[in-house]
C-alpha cells in the first residue's frame, strides 16, 4: 500500500483497506470491521467470507532515491504516470504441490 507517514495521523480514516479500488472498498462491510480491528491495513486483517478478492499491482515504486527524505529515484527506476502500461497474468487452480509443479511447466500466454 501507499502511505504518507508524515500526515497519516492527521487524516480521518479509522477503518480502511489499503491497496483496494473504491469499488472493492464499497463492497466491504465497515460495520463488521469495527468489531474486528481498529484499522485494517493488510489483506489478512479482513474477516474471511465466502469469496476471495486479491489486488495485484503491475509495479510498485518505493523511495528509491539516495536518501529517504525527498530524493527522487533515478529515471530508470521511476514509473511515469503519463504512459500506458499493459500486463496480464493467469490464475491456475491447483490442489497439491504436484499439480503446481505440473502447471508451472506450461506457457499460459
From TrEMBL:
Keywords: Calcium, Glycosidase, Hydrolase. It is an enzyme of class 3 (hydrolase). It catalyses: Hydrolysis of terminal non-reducing beta-D-galactose residues in beta-D-galactosides. Its EC number is 3.2.1.23. It comes from the Bacteria. The keyword Hydrolase applies. The keyword Hydrolase applies. GO terms for cellular component: beta-galactosidase complex. GO terms for biological process: lactose catabolic process. Residues 1-24 are annotated as: Disordered. GO terms for molecular function: beta-galactosidase activity; carbohydrate binding. Residues 36-91 form the Beta galactosidase small chain/ domain. InterPro entries: B-gal_small/dom_5, Bact_Beta-galactosidase, Gal_mutarotase_sf_dom, GH-type_carb-bd. Its cofactor is Ca(2+). Monomer. PANTHER family: BETA-GALACTOSIDASE. This is beta-galactosidase. It comes from Bacteroides ovatus.
